[in-house]
Amino acid sequence: MLKKFSALSNNKPSLFLLIAALIVCGVGAQATGILNTPSGGYLVCVNSSTKVVTHPGTSTCPKGSKRLVLGAQGEAGTDGLTGAAGLPGKDGTNGKDGNTIWNGVTDPISTLGVPGDMFINTVTKKLFGPKNVDGTWPAGVSMLGPKGDQGATGATGATGATGSAATSAPVATGSDCIGTKCTYKIGDLGPGGGIIFFVDYNNLYSGLDYLEAAPQGWGDGITVNSDAEETTGSATVDPLLRWCGDSYDRILNRWEDRAVGAGESNTTTALTTCESGAIKAARDYRGGSKTDWSLGSLGEVKLMYDNLLGLGGFIWGDYWSSSGGEDGDVWAKAFTFLEGYTLNGYKSGIRYVRPVRAF
Q: CB under 8 Å to 60, separation ≥6 — which residues?
């Protein structure tokens, strides 16, 4: 242990110099210069009473001594000011050009694009590429995936609004059609838009399977000869026409001219001399875009009366047939729908008309 240096201890600067010298020179076992503090400094202890300076081997001083640390690291100072920005760096070199994705409506040709490019055929939805280094294009690959499974059936839609009330027209048997060949029954809507009134179930008549009457309203607004007291039709009333206003030849008065199936040939024959009236109006009718309408023979008109049983909006009056009368050239056969019998009528007289077609 060091001797008392009472006089020296009263002069603190001198005391510190002494301690430093002792540590540097290694004087005394208690001043060997051991780093014994966490901060890396030298700890010395000064006895407050005896003024004896010691350098303990621990990091603490004895009770009653003052603790001095020599060479300890001080606290960090405040940060300095930010320096000025440096000069911009030199521009880098340009990167390598990327490849191109082409498209068209045909497959790519060898002169299109460079190696590495891609191509899309917008029609076939095939992808080609990358293009080969030899300038060729590889085979295209479809971009369309396989067809997916059929989806589940959707929910049933809401019931639609109730339609307007139907007219009394008969219903067509479209479900009985095979291709363009249909079968009909009496009262059905025919292909010409009229009403089927005869079916040749027993194949008795060559050249026809059915007879069809024009629908109610067929003559609505047709041109007539008002000077001859003819009247045009309406939506509910058939027109009143002369049989043939300018023909008085004794024609179509054979029995076969009254047969079922004779209406079309009768009309064609009468038209050679007849340019107006019932014959002409029946042939000019184009219901259902059909061109084979005619004025029915007496047998055909009678079948309309017998088979339709009130269907079709017929008037309770006399209807012209295309059959001639047997009592001279001024007569033609008519059929009364009021009482159901045949009669002779003057060709210049007016009676109701309803066209017929056979098919």
A: 67
Q: Rounded to the nearest 5°, which phi and psi values hold at 278?
A: -65, -40
Q: Are residues 202 and 300 in the same domain?
A: yes
Peptide bond into 130 cis (omega under 30): yes
Q: Are strands 101-104 and 118-121 parallel, antiparallel or unpaired?
A: parallel
Sign of CA dihedral 305, 309, 311, 317: positive
- One domain, residues 109 and 28: no
Same domain? 115 vs 235: no
The answer, yes or no, to whether residue 155 has pLDDT greater than 60, is yes
Last residue of a domain, one of 70, 97, 120: 70
The boundaries of the domain holding residue 61 are 6-70
What pTM value is reported for the model?
0.52
pLDDT on residue 286: 97
Is residue 338 included in any domain, yes or no? yes
* Residues 262-277: tens digit of each pLDDT: 999 999 998 888 888 9
- How many structural domains is the chain composed of? 3
> Contact, 332 vs 320, CB < 8 A?
yes
Residue corresponding to tokens 């891609």: 118
Is pLDDT larger for residue 274 or for residue 40? Answer: 274
Q: Are residues 244 and 203 in the same domain?
A: yes
Both tokens of 316, joined, read: 């309770």
Sign of torsion over alpha carbons 57, 61, 66, 71: positive
Alpha carbon distance 138, 287 (integer Å): 63
Q: What pairing do the DSSP bridges indicate for beta strands 355-358 and 294-295?
A: antiparallel
Q: Which residue has the higher pLDDT, 79 or 97?
A: 79
User: Residues 239, 358: one domain?
Assistant: yes
- Measured distance CA(248)–CA(331) in Å, rounded: 8
Pick the closest to residue 263 from 330, 354, 149 (CA basis).
354
Q: Alpha-carbon distance 99 to 103, whole Å?
A: 13
Residue 160 counted as domain residue: no
**Structural domain contains residue 155:** no
